């Protein structure tokens, strides 16, 4: 049976910060299968607390590692 995908979202108005966040997240994972990524840019001027400029949003859909019993061809001996 297929498991639902997990979603991780990164957002900042500095691209280098998002890059660091994604690299740190990937380094903290033992193993993931990335299924899809999506990048969006917003104006970011709707909130007075925003420092202006565009906001970058990176969304990652992924599958965490499957337990051995869920892997194809797994047998108990």
SSE blueprint and pairings:
Layout: E1 6-12, H1 15-28, E2 33-42, E3 55-63
Antiparallel strand pairs: 1-3, 2-3
Pick out its properties:
single chain; 34% strand; 18% helix; 77 residues
Describe this structure as you would to a colleague.
With 77 residues, the chain is an alpha+beta fold. The protein has one domain. 18% of the residues lie in helices and 34% in strands. The protein has one helix and three strands. It has a three-stranded antiparallel beta sheet with strand order 1-3-2, covered by helices on one side. The longest helix is centred in the first third of the chain and has 14 residues, at 15-28. It is elongated and about 60 Å long.
Following the backbone from N to C, one meets helices and strands in this order, namely EHEE
Quote the distance from N terminus to C terminus: 22 Å
Query: Any idea how many domains?
Result: 1
The radius of gyration over CA amounts to 17 Å
Shape annotation: elongated
Mean pLDDT, to the nearest integer, reads 82
User: Strands of the biggest beta sheet: in what spatial order?
Assistant: 1-3-2
Q: How many beta strands in the DSSP annotation?
A: 3
Number of contiguous helices: 1
Uncertain runs are: none
Work out the strand percent: 25-35%
Helix content: 10-25%
Structural class designation: alpha+beta
The major sheet is characterized as: 3 strands, antiparallel
